[in-house]
Structure formats: C-alpha cells, structure tokens
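ok, trying the design again with the full structure, not the truncated one.
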C-alpha cells in the first residue's frame, strides 16, 4: 500500500557561534574590506584580526576607536580597522557614549580581491521545520536521510541571492531544487563568527533532514 512520508525531523545546519554581546546592524562589506586591506599585508598575502574599543555615537555608530588587540602586528591592520569601524559599523541597543568592543577581521582571501566564502555565517533567519516539510519530496520507498548544500551570495541586509545547489545527497530526487526554493528564508548578519564581512561574499547553506513513514513518525 502506498504510504506518504512525513518529515520527522529537519535541521538547517547553520554553524552559528554563540551570540555576540553586540548586535551589529551595519558593517563593512567584502569589497570595502578588500579595498581597505593594508598594502603590506596584501603583498604578503596574509590576513589578520583586530579588536577595538570604541565609543558609541547617536544612532549606534562608532567613534574614537582605539586598538586593544592586533594580530599580526606591524602590517597595518589596526589603522585599517579603526577607519572601517568609524565609517561603516553600527550597533543596535547601545546608548551614546557607551564603550563598545568592536572586532574587525581581514580574511587572507580578500588580499587578492573581494571574492571569498564566509567560514562561519551568523544566521539571523532560517526556514521553519514546517516550511521545509512543505517543499521536500515525499515518496514511498524514498531515502530516509537527505543532505543539501546551497552556495549563495549575500546581499545588503543579509538576504541571499544567486543561489545554486552545490551538493545534493541523494542526487536526482528533487531535494536540491526543493531547498533552493527556500533560499529567500535564509538571512545572515553583517559579520561572520570570525568578525569578517558577509555582504558581498559567498556563503554555504547546509541543510539536513530525516524522513520517516507517517505511521512510524507518529509513534
């Protein structure tokens, strides 16, 4: 007898770190970080990271930033980070004159140009289980487990565009195209878990779901 299949569990494998204390609503884009990349570091092909202490201005902007940690030193990352933070970064929920720790990352890939893939996106929105359940194929005798990975470009505001299916297991059964329809439901923050830019970069979107027969799922 034909049995439809129900989604027993579904998880968007969005590897997000613990939420940072500061909610960033604006940050430099990948092209802006690439343009600000220190020449000495660019010539050496190395990346770096900076932590600043800044004062919040009205509207959440950053002013009077001072470098409190710079790795590696001597390549100009500190000065570049200060300029980017004061021009581009804005936080939510901070009052004027609050002191704010500001991380700024410089991925080595951006030493060569603005194209790179974010390592650890911070997801601010993902599809619900119900939304995934509504689109995935459910057939008698179908696979129990499926894996899909999309590759997308991050737009201003954190929305994704230009998504393509990079991985689909099992292939050829409609899972990739189904998850592709949900791409508008994913959204990322302006900074990654490593404090690198997301807007203007690419991001991988891994999704996993497990299927069980309706009668089995009800037990």
């Amino acid at each position: 007898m034909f049995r439809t299949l129900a989604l027993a569990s579904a998880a968007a494998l969005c590897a997000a770190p613990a939420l940072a204390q500061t909610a960033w609503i604006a940050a430099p884009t990948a092209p802006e970080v690439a343009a600000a990349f220190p020449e000495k570091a660019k010539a050496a092909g190395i990346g770096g990271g900076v932590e600043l202490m800044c004062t919040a201005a009205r509207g959440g902007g950053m002013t009077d930033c001072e470098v409190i940690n710079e790795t590696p030193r001597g390549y100009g990352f500190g000065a570049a980070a200060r300029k980017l933070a004061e021009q581009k970064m804005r936080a939510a929920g901070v009052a004027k004159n609050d002191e704010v720790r500001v991380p700024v990352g410089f991925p080595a890939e951006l030493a060569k140009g603005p194209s790179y893939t974010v390592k650890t996106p911070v997801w601010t929105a993902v599809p619900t289980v119900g939304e995934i359940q509504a689109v995935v194929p459910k057939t008698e005798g179908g696979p129990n487990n499926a894996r899909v990975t999309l590759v997308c470009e991050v737009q201003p505001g954190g929305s994704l565009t230009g998504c393509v299916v990079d991985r689909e297991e099992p292939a050829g059964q409609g899972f990739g195209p189904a998850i592709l329809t949900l791409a508008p439901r994913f959204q990322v923050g302006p900074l990654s878990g490593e404090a690198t830019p997301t807007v203007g970069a690419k991001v991988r979107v891994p999704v996993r779901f497990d299927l069980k027969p309706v009668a089995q799922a009800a037990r």
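Keeping the full-length input from now on. The chain is about 20% helix and 35% strand.
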